[in-house]
From TrEMBL, chain A:
Entry-linked PANTHER family: RECQ-MEDIATED GENOME INSTABILITY PROTEIN 1, RECQ-MEDIATED GENOME INSTABILITY PROTEIN 1 RMI1
Sequence similarity: Belongs to the RMI1 family.
Pfam family, one: RMI1_N_C
Name the record gives this protein: RecQ-mediated genome instability protein 1
Domain RecQ mediated genome instability protein 1 OB-fold: 69-235
InterPro entries given in the database record: RMI1_N (IPR049363), RMI1_N_C_sf (IPR042470), RMI1_OB (IPR013894)
Domain RMI1 N-terminal stretches: 12-60
Species per Swiss-Prot/TrEMBL record: Aspergillus lucknowensis
Automatic annotation (TrEMBL), chain B:
Isomerase as UniProt keyword: yes
Class in the EC hierarchy, top level: isomerase
Task of the protein: Introduces a single-strand break via transesterification at a target site in duplex DNA. Releases the supercoiling and torsional tension of DNA introduced during the DNA replication and transcription by transiently cleaving and rejoining one strand of the DNA duplex. The scissile phosphodiester is attacked by the catalytic tyrosine of the enzyme, resulting in the formation of a DNA-(5'-phosphotyrosyl)-enzyme intermediate and the expulsion of a 3'-OH DNA strand.
EC number(s) reported in the record: 5.6.2.1
Pfam families: Topoisom_bac (PF01131), Toprim (PF01751)
Regions annotated as coiled coil: none
Database matches in InterPro entries: Topo_IA (IPR000380), Topo_IA_2 (IPR003601), Topo_IA_AS (IPR023406), Topo_IA_cen (IPR013497), Topo_IA_cen_sub1 (IPR013824), Topo_IA_cen_sub2 (IPR013825), Topo_IA_cen_sub3 (IPR013826), Topo_IA_core_domain (IPR023405)
UniProt-recorded name of the protein: DNA topoisomerase
Catalytic activity entry: ATP-independent breakage of single-stranded DNA, followed by passage and rejoining
Keywords: DNA-binding, Isomerase, Topoisomerase
Amino acid sequence: MANLKDQIATELLRTKSLPVSQPWLDNFLSSSSTAQRNTPLPALTRTALFRILTSDFRESLASRNATILPVDIADPNVQERRLPGCIPVQVLDIEDIGTSAWSQIEAIERVERGETVRGREIVRTVNIGGDEDQGGATGSGNRATAACTNAGMDADANESGGPHRLVLQDAKGTRVMGIEMKKITGFAIGRLSIGAKLLLRDSTVARGMVLLTPENVTLLGGKIEAMDQAWKTGRKERLLEKINGTGGGT
Amino acid sequence: MAGSKVLCVAEKPAIAKAVAQHLSGGRMRTLHVNGNRYVKNYVFDFNFGGTWGDCSVTMTSVMGHLTSVEFQREYMGWTSCPPAQLFEAPIHVYVDKERAAIAENILTQARNCNALFIWTDCDREGEHIGTEVRDKARESNQRIIVKRAMFNNTERAHILNAARSLGDLDERQANAVAARIELDLRIGAAFTRLLTLQLQPLHDSLQNHTISYGSCQFPTLGFVVDRYLRVKRFKSEKFWGIKVMHARDNMKVNFLWSRVHLFDRAAVIMMLERCLMAKKAKVTKVNQKPTSKWRPLPLTTVDLQMMGTRYLHMDSSAVMKTAEALYTKGFISYPRTETDQFDKGIDLKKLIEKQLEDQSWGEYARGLLDGNFKTPRAGRHNDRAHPPIHPVCWVSPSALSANEKKVYEFVVRRFLACCSDDAKGQSTEVEIQYGDEMFRARGLIVLERNYLDVYVYDKWESTQQLPNYRVGEQFEPTEANIFDGKTTPPNYLTEPELIGLMDANGIGTDATMAEHIEKIKMRSYIGVHSRGGGRNAVKELIPSRLGIALILGYDDVFAGLADKPSLSKPFLRKEMELEMRDVCAGTRMRQHVVQQNLDMYRELFIHTQRRMNMLKSAFRRYIVEEENV
């Protein structure tokens, strides 16, 4: 029995860099039926991995020093530092900082009204004022049109454009902000669930923000259902608070 | 059939006159028609060729639709029946008083003729008017032979050609119009009576105010209200970005950030710091390529209305009325067309030739004939009935009213632009990597203006030139700074935008859009306000409290109903419009389409009745209590 436990733990650490906590694994094994215990090791390991991805890392992972974030990681006074090795974290929040909160709210409301998706029917918006770019856009005009785009003229694309700002949490509960410096596949609002698991590999932290790039992020997937639900329900409210909080005001 | 007597009927008096003049060569007698000041009978001889040969002809016209459709007398009073009954109440076709003399004229003339040639405009409505005329003529002469002339402008050769290659009326198109007329009558009357009777008593300002419903009007109003609410509810937010400047060869080159701007200040500061830490920027791309600005596509009605409202400072219904006047006088081709490709058979150079004598663009036209001519681009639409709108002949500006001059000039310039070459230029793009961030600078030199010289409505200008950069080269930017800004609300809807939205969402046909906009103005659902002053003034469409209350009230009525889109949205009307196309194509029966639509709208009607309290409370909120949205 103990042998089986070690084997699973070793396997998960070797293939996924996940240091599973002993008590969690004990609990996992004792809760599985005899039939399951007779299943071959690879299958059992897969089941364990699946459970871990839908678990809370604070319960399922051991907090060894090498695999957790430094406690002062969010310190904005540190210009730059490296995080050597592999640190598993879970996503607590994701925000699109390339798009104004208001146009995100408008997009949510369009979905609420059933306008974006009703079979094939879509209320089509047209942009008449904007010059169609035929390969000869003028430099100075660029910013103006971009500003107008951000007012929400065409926030219709189904996926958030990013870059995204994430709140990440390690096995010990330390939180840190992450900025998507280069587009990472799978990072989008609605696609990346709350509670999804990532591995940070030899990452750089600048002014308390982890710089996320495809080279040093491995997306393991998963989610924490309850947190994800709560996050979705509260999203519009949070966006509204953000607008009112930062004191934009018309 | 030599020696036949033929009756020709056009859609409008001016067309009848123009056609008669071409066919008779000016040798005709003009006879007065009893009871109508506008319609005349023109009598002359003409050889239609083929089996017809020499005929004695009477050319006359109607004035638009000859007949109307109405409920029978007992249903006419607003309180004569529950409005829901109007979905099946009997209706009848009749000639109303104003048109009695015109109908009588056709009846009398047809009695002595062997044949009836229909010269109504070649579109759906024209086809339907043709069948109205035919039915009337057959009342007095059952054996009369009916033919149809196909034409799309009133230029002489074209008219003579049309007279010698007659076809038949298209029954399907006429059926589609008949279906639409019946649906508009029943649905419009039922909802309008319901809304007016229920909502009028709610406030003094609504006394004597008809609160009408139309399946095109409402979605049109919906677009205006929708934008208004977006402007009113808009919340501004701050954003930050990075700008990089590099001075080289006495030029200041501004590089724009590939992320444009972000809504997180701390992240932007961090990114700038990492740029500065890198010290040097590296040139990753230098792209020099020829670029062009394309000449416009041949002109369609929707485009004419959009461009007209945007550049000519006229509203769309004025643009259409003016274009029709120009067509009737024979200066431009038929202004109702979806076609944005010229037929191969049309002699474009000949049309250009006619513009040579013009003071403003004659010289440009000369240049086209001397070798600058290019075959126009072909768009993707072809209604198989009419060519794109183009000038038919030259007319001296002094012969035109102010509005006619503007529209005619636009049509001509657009046409000449279509037959010109694209504007050519050279664009340069330099991309640099600075830290982890990418920046771009762009330059454009316009080398050949080509069509831009005649099409004064398009702008394309050279920008600052860029100094030389080599790929791989590194340099230290002169300045790198944070800038900030605020998001701005969208503008209120303008008429060209509204037409664009109606077109994209299938509300109305190109021919009727302007009427729907006119209608919601007339009903005081929307008003027009000017933003800015002088020549740059933009006319914006703002909904009235009544308009807002109707749309928001209706949204409440249909809220939470799956598969029941609000009447303020374009979905239902779009479906109806598509079904009309099916009727035209012959794939669906008129009666079937009518029945199905009536069933659907009846259901929506019952639902509206049930939740009338929601409409009422919206009226109380926005009209009585003047609550803000």
